[in-house]
Design a protein that fits this description.
The chain has 123 residues and is mostly beta strands. The chain has no helices and eleven strands. It is 0% helix and 50% strand.
Amino acid sequence: QVHLVESGGGSVQAGGSLRLSCGASGYTYRRGCMAWFRQAPGKEREGVALIINASGYTIYTDSVKGRFTISRDSAKSTLYLQMNSLKPEDTAMYYCAADLWRCGLDQGQYTYWGQGTQVTVSS
């Protein structure tokens, strides 16, 4: 059974940085994808970034390109999201997601989800 646990959220002023972590147990990094999603109040959950496990190739949604970096440490079974130059519009609950077969920034492509960690950016 795959289990994902996010941490690292918090409150920060605009322009600041945070690093989110997602500990993964019971998951293989040899195939599929892992991703970060976020959901702001009253909005749909949106894909932020993904990493293809076999190649390490990454994809970002346009609004975070150049500011966020997704990475993983397979030895530590941990996925990261480094968030720099944060903006108030980045405020959301951030979720880690994983799937063994599918990849993309559509939440329907992921089987496994963490419980989320809150990020709040003040202006």
